[in-house]
Amino acid sequence: METLTTPTDSVFSRLPDPSSGVFTAPLQRPGHVGEDWVEPRQHVYGADENAVWDDLFARQMEVLPGRAASTFLAGLGKLDLGRGGVPEFARLSADLGALTGWSVVPVPMLIPDHVFFWHLANRRFPAGNFIRGRASFDYIEEPDVFHDVFGHVPMLADPIFADYMQAYGRAGWKAMRHNRLKALGALYWYTVEFGLVEEGGALRAYGAGILSGPGEAVFALEAASPNRIRLNVDRVMRTDYVIDDLQPTYFVIESFADLYHQTVERDFDRLYRGLGPGFTYANTAVIDIDDVLHRGTLEYHLRGGRRSGAKPV
Ligand SMILES: [Fe+2]
C-alpha cells in the first residue's frame, strides 16, 4: 500500500526548496522574518485587542454548544482558551505539546505553501499574529489570530486529528511535485476549514472556518440551502470552493479516524495523475456517486449570496 509520502519526502527536518517548475504564490517575505517565516516574538496585544478576542469568544460560545464537535469543545476546555485575552503562544504550546506534541508559532498573515506544509509536517501550527479590528468584527479576508487559534488549535488537542494535520503537511510535498496544490487545497477547505462530523446520529461542525465565524455554524447544520454530502476524498479534490461566502456544500465524515484512514492510506500519486489541472465539479453540484445526507435548496446562493444580502436560509 502506498501512502501520502514517498522516500524522497521522508526528510521533513529541512525546509524544502521548491524546484523552479513548481508554482508557488509570489509572496514577499518581510525583512524581519527568516526562511521559516516565524515572527521573532508574538505580538503584544493591547487592552482593546484583548477585548476583541474576549467579545469574539463570548459570541461564538453562544452558538457553538450543541453545534461544535465534542472534540473541538473538549480541546477548547483542555487548552483553557477562554481564560481572557489572546492566548500567549508559549503557554499554549506547552499545554498543546503535553497533549499531542504540537506547538503554535506566530507568522505574518499568509505564508508560502511549502513553508506552511513544512511547519505542519513538524507539528507546528502557524498562526496569524494580528487580530481583527472592530470594523471587521464579523468578516475578515485574511485569517487572524482568532480564526487561527480559536478555530484551529482546539482540534490539534485531539491525537487523531493532530496526526491528520501532520500527514496533510507531509502530503503537500507530493502535491507540489504534481502541481496539484489546488486539489489538496480543496481537501483542506472541505475538512479542516468547513468539515462536518456525525456524532450520535446528529451533525456537528469541526471546521475552523465554521467555528470561528458568526452564523456559519447555524447555516451549515440547520439551513435548507446547503448540500450535506458524505466525504469522498477523490470527489472533494475535484470540487471548486468559494472563499468569500457561506459554502453551498458541506462534506460530512463519520469520525476523525475515518478521515485519517480515507486520506493517509490513499494512493495520492495515482489520484494526482488522474486529476486535471482545474476543478471538475462546481461547488453547488450534486453528482450521481454522492452519498447525500441533505440535498440543499441552494436558495441562499441562487438569491446571490452575501453580495446581494440574501438571507442565509
Ligand atoms: Fe484556517
Strand arrangement in the largest pleated sheet: 4-3-6-5-7
CATH superfamily placement: Aromatic amino acid hydroxylase
**Class based on secondary structure composition and strand pairing:** alpha/beta
Predict the CATH topology.
Phenylalanine Hydroxylase
CATH architecture: Orthogonal Bundle
Q: What is the mean pLDDT?
A: 91
Q: What is the radius of gyration? A: 19 Å
Distance between the termini: 44 Å
Number of helices: 13
Beta content comes to 5-15%
Whole-number total of structural domains: 1
Overall CATH class:
Mainly Alpha
Report the sheet with the most strands, covering strand number, pairing sense and barrel closure.
5 strands, mixed
* Helical amount: 25-40%
Low-confidence stretches: 1-7
Topology order in helix (H) and strand (E) letters: HHHEHEHHHEEHHEHEHHEH
* Count of strand segments: 7
Ligands present: fe (ii) ion
Question: Which features characterize this protein?
Answer:
313 residues, alpha/beta, Phenylalanine Hydroxylase, 7 strands, disordered N terminus, binds fe (ii) ion
Could you walk me through the main structural features you see in this protein, from its secondary elements to its overall organization?
By secondary structure, this protein is of the alpha/beta class. The protein has one domain (about 45-310): Aromatic amino acid hydroxylase (Phenylalanine Hydroxylase, Orthogonal Bundle). It is about 40% helix and about 10% strand. A 5-stranded mixed β-sheet has the order 4-3-6-5-7. Strand 3 (about 195-200) and strand 4 (about 200-205) form a beta hairpin. The longest helix is centred in the middle third of the chain and has 19 residues, at about 160-175. The structure holds fe (ii) ion (FE2). Fe (ii) ion binds near residues 151, 152 and 193.
